[in-house]
Write a structure and sequence with these properties.
Number of strands of chain A: 18
Distance between the termini of chain B: 73 Å
Number of helices of chain B: 17
Largest interface: A-B, 46 and 37 residues
Distance between the termini of chain A: 80 Å
Largest sheet of chain B: 8 strands, mixed
Oligomer: heterodimer
Number of strands of chain B: 11
Largest sheet of chain A: 5 strands, parallel
CATH architecture of the largest domain in chain A: 3-Layer(aba) Sandwich
Strand order of the largest sheet of chain B: 1-2-6-5-4-3-7-8
Strand order of the largest sheet of chain A: 11-14-17-10-18
Strand content of chain B: 5-15%
Number of helices of chain A: 22
CATH topology of the largest domain in chain B: Rossmann fold
Radius of gyration of chain B: 25 Å
CATH superfamily of the largest domain in chain A: P-loop containing nucleotide triphosphate hydrolases
Structural class of chain B: alpha/beta
Number of domains of chain A: 2
Shape of chain A: elongated
């Protein structure tokens, strides 16, 4: 009496097809689950037994062996409760094997026989080995995003009735592709800081990482929070990728829909390496950098983050993904995000203005060493933002609002796509001369900087990409002009200038 | 370990050993030598060793015992050997070689360690002490350097405190010129503090004079800076505060100088600059302003007051670009000690600036002008603005700071015309 049920497991954020084999035979009553189950999987024995009994089914007093195949994949979580229960019902003849059809089962069981959702339903439904998936009703629209035929049930008893044809299936849930739109803060609310606003615009348009250095109250956080609002909607593929990460991290919340707006993640500076990069003891969970995939990762008070945590960002910043390795498993998470950092210039925060810093020189140096040179180098835009005078706050008219700036950004991004890259920050080194050619004046300006030793080769490429974006924003799509390069250089001042006057 | 004074051990050895006692303030050392030793270090040493010290407030039983233990386990000759191997001379008050400037000081250092040419602090040489904050602005650094250089060029001994910021700028400006340069350190002379000044220490030790009342190995502790300031005030004919916050070590030097009846001068700074608040307050309290080396020379009595030619201006060559001035163009005087801020006269601006650059230059203040203010004032596109600023930067007319630009004071413009 063997029953084979199809299901899927979550490995990182990827689904893996799993066969749940349930064997019921004579012998001393026992219930064993084998095939690398974790603690939650083994607990399935108790949940499944209680759920079957509460739903009015008999519990076979026989030897039950459940194998989760293939044995090489680690199985985590409670998602195998449902396939095990269905397998038992098939093996004991309550439900005929032919009733199942070409369907995979994913879900957790309550002791009362109710069905509950589990993390990563989208990815699992996506990789299920069958044409249809059966998931708990609460996870229906999430599973529907994967594009499979989805059937739902809210309890084990209802499921069995539907499988036997005694009751009709509930209507299939619609996939919520449009996504919810939460109100985003408007850029028009930021008074003054024309330069900072412009830097944020350039960052959004070109996908350039942005570091803002300024005293408390300069408006760094306000600007960073308004950056995602300037970015265009995610494409179908991007939205799917980001939603899968959020699903695997059980972060989608109650009303599941596709994530259409670029997410903003703002981890606190006490964040550990696993929480930022991804990892975990019992289950590998995507970190903040992956939750910010296709969105913005904002590190406020960046210099307060432990240096090891910050340096952990360097590889994902280059590659767009992160491989988390543990002794027993390896997971790969997507992590293509726009990094926005905000920091004070020194411990007291007032080091940008001459003579108003209250720190002693050695503590300034220690503070500035918190962020390694290689990490600083990865910021295309490094903007010093002195505090706006009170008079300016009252007098300056409000700048462009989010809608206006977002339109410019969308146009610039559209131009980048025509060049064949998703954004200007992604222009490969080999294509710079072709996609961002320089006018002779621009080349001369860059040559002078290089000769003066104020620009290194890596900085050169970054400046050229930023210059391309500056031109795009002004609707200039021809060769990069001298002014574009000068503006880009102004957005990436020398490190010692940035680190302050004191 | 004899309780007897050894024959043939120089008095300097005992002085150096006494200066190395733990928990020792300069005043304690003075009293050890004066009261207990009657001016003879070996006698004081002997009294410490036997614990027979005249009772004083600072002499708790614990402290006497501590000193006694320290002395009993030491050989004074080792202290002297160490000093000599470091190239240090030990100067003891009351013995030959002790600087005459400090001999009649109200709180003289009882023992001084010196490296370099001691004749530099001769009583006959005019001596200016330049002090200021470590957290100085570009303006302060520039003024310190220029004052140091010009004073030194006119043969004035320039003394400063070996700290970062104003001190270092004044000394590096003065080194390699006519007058000797003296550094008074707050640490032992083998302990370079701050480490960023290593080169300066080496140059001062070989080309000038390094002084400290702390024994070799003495690290940087807060009180030692206060003591150092007192020694500097004692050496001074004039104390010039180049740049000081409203509170700071420079003002300790000022107090000590006032106590000794020395002239105190201050370099005026922008009233909006926190780094100049202390110096400006001194001027408000009646200290004469030091706008340039000439003012200091007048205070030193080297130049007769009122001999400055009409129309002659405060001399502050720009720190960069490093171009030689060819001729001195006529300049108008815009007020005591200030640098002309917004001179719009045609001859002050290089001829080869474009109209846009000229207008842009008008919008940059001498004080830091934020980028967003420049954007609002000019209404230029970021690219044009950046290009204009880059041109002005290359012409040496403006300087960049984090998020701001400032017009460079001085005569970069005329220099450009002349060259």
């Amino acid at each position: 009496m063997l029953a084979i049920i199809h299901s899927a497991a979550l490995d990182g954020i990827e689904g893996k097809p799993i066969r749940v084999e349930v064997h019921v035979s004579s012998g001393l009553p026992a219930f064993n689950v084998v095939g690398q189950p974790d603690a939650a999987c083994r607990e399935a024995r108790d949940r499944v037994r209680a759920a079957l009994l509460s739903s009015g089914f008999a519990w076979p007093l026989q030897r039950i062996t459940v194998n989760l195949a293939p044995g090489s994949v680690r199985k985590v979580g409670a998602g195998f409760d449902l396939p095990i229960a269905v397998g038992l019902l098939v093996a004991t003849g309550v439900v005929g094997a032919d009733c199942l059809g070409d369907c995979s089962f994913i879900g957790e069981l309550g002791l009362d026989g109710s069905l509950r959702g589990v993390p990563g339903i989208i990815s699992m439904a996506d990789r299920a080995p069958t044409s249809a998936v059966l998931v708990p009703a609460a996870a229906g629209s999430e599973a529907a995003l994967a594009g499979r035929r989805v059937q739902t049930a809210s309890s084990l008893r209802g499921l069995v009735a539907a499988l036997k044809g005694e009751e009709p299936w509930p209507p299939p849930p619609p996939p919520l592709i449009e996504g919810r739109r939460l109100p985003e803060p408007d850029l028009g609310e930021v008074k003054g800081q024309l330069f900072g606003r412009w830097a944020v615009e350039v960052a959004a348009a070109g996908g350039h990482h942005l570091l803002m250095v300024g005293p408390p109250g300069a408006g760094k956080t306000m600007l960073a929070q308004r950056l995602p609002g300037l970015l265009p909607d995610l494409s179908d593929q991007e939205a799917m990728d980001t939603t899968r990460v959020w699903s695997a991290a059980s972060m989608l919340g109650e009303q599941v829909s596709l994530i259409r707006r670029p997410p903003l993640r703002t981890p606190h500076h006490s964040a550990s390496i696993p929480s930022l990069i991804g990892g975990g003891t019992y289950r590998i969970r995507p970190g903040e950098i992956s939750l910010a995939h296709n969105g913005v990762l904002f590190l406020d008070e960046m210099a307060e983050f432990p240096r090891a945590v910050l340096d952990g960002l360097r590889q994902p910043l280059e590659d767009g993904w992160i491989t988390v390795s543990r002794a027993r498993w390896v997971s790969r998470f997507p992590a293509r995000f726009l990094l926005v950092g905000a920091t004070n210039p020194c411990p007291c925060g007032y080091g940008l203005t001459k003579g108003s810093c209250r720190c002693n020189p050695s503590s300034r140096i220690r503070y500035s060493q918190r962020m390694s040179g290689p990490l600083l180098d990865r910021f295309d835009l490094r903007v010093a933002m002195p505090r706006t005078d009170v008079a300016d706050l009252m007098g300056i008219p409000a700048g462009d609002n989010t809608a206006t700036v977002a339109a410019r950004v969308a146009e610039a991004r559209g131009m980048a796509r025509k060049r064949g890259v998703s954004c200007n920050a992604c222009i490969p080194l080999g294509s710079l001369d072709e996609l961002a050619p320089l006018t002779s004046g621009a080349a001369l300006l860059l040559t002078r900087r290089l000769e003066a030793g104020r620009l290194n080769p890596r900085g050169l490429h970054r400046v050229r990409r930023v210059a391309r974006t500056v031109g795009d924003l002004e609707g200039h799509f021809g060769p990069v002009r001298e002014g574009d390069v000068a503006a880009a250089l102004g957005l990436r001042p020398d490190e010692d200038v940035l680190r302050g006057a004191a | 370990m004899s309780a007897l004074v050894r024959i043939g051990v120089p008095e300097e050895a005992y002085a150096a050993a006494l200066a190395s006692l733990p928990e020792l303030l300069p005043a304690y050392l003075s009293r050890l030598l004066e009261i207990d030793g009657g001016g003879v270090p070996s006698v004081a040493w002997h009294r410490v060793m036997t614990g027979r010290l005249e009772p004083r407030r600072e002499l708790s039983a614990d402290r006497v015992a501590t000193w006694r233990r320290a002395v009993q386990s030491q050989d004074p000759r080792e202290h002297l050997t160490r000093c000599r191997s470091l190239g240090l001379r030990v100067l003891v008050r009351g013995l030959p070689g002790y600087p005459a400037r400090l001999a009649h000081d109200p709180a003289p250092p009882a023992v001084l360690f010196a490296r370099g040419d001691l004749s530099t602090i001769d009583q006959s040489r005019p001596t200016a002490v330049l002090v200021g904050t470590r957290r100085c602005s570009g303006y302060g650094r520039q003024m310190a350097q220029v004052l140091g250089r010009h004073l030194s060029e006119r043969g004035v001994v320039v003394v400063s405190g070996m700290a970062a910021g104003i001190d270092a700028a004044a000394q590096s400006g003065a080194l390699g010129r006519e007058g000797p340069v003296v550094g008074v350190a707050a640490t032992g002379l083998d302990v370079v503090y701050p480490t960023s000044s290593t080169k300066l220490w080496e140059r001062l030790g070989s080309e000038g004079l390094l002084l400290s009342e702390k024994p070799p190995g003495h690290g940087a502790v807060p009180t030692s800076f206060i003591h150092r300031n007192r020694v500097m005030a004692g050496l001074a004919d004039v104390v010039v505060v180049v740049e000081s916050h409203i509170q700071g070590g420079s003002l300790v030097t000022v107090d000590e100088a006032v106590r000794r009846g020395r002239t105190v001068m201050a370099v005026p700074g922008p009233v909006t600059s926190a780094a100049s608040a202390g110096a400006n307050a001194l001027i408000a309290d009646g200290c004469p302003p030091a706008r340039d080396a000439m003012d200091v020379q007048v205070a030193l009595g080297l130049v007769r007051a009122g001999r400055r030619r009409a129309g002659e201006l405060v001399e502050v060559p720009p720190p960069q670009p490093k171009r030689r001035r060819v001729g001195r163009p006529p300049r108008s005087r815009s007020g005591p000690g200030t640098i002309p801020t917004r001179q719009r006269s045609a001859e002050n601006v290089p001829a080869d600036l474009s109209e846009l650059e000229r207008q842009l230059l008008d919008q940059v203040d001498a004080t830091p002008t934020r980028m967003d203010v420049l954007m609002a004032r000019t209404g230029l596109a970021p690219g044009e603005l950046a290009l204009g600023l880059d041109a002005l930067d290359r012409a040496g007319l403006v300087e960049a700071g984090p998020g701001w630009w400032a017009r460079i004071a001085g005569e970069a413009g005329p220099g450009r015309i002349a060259g």
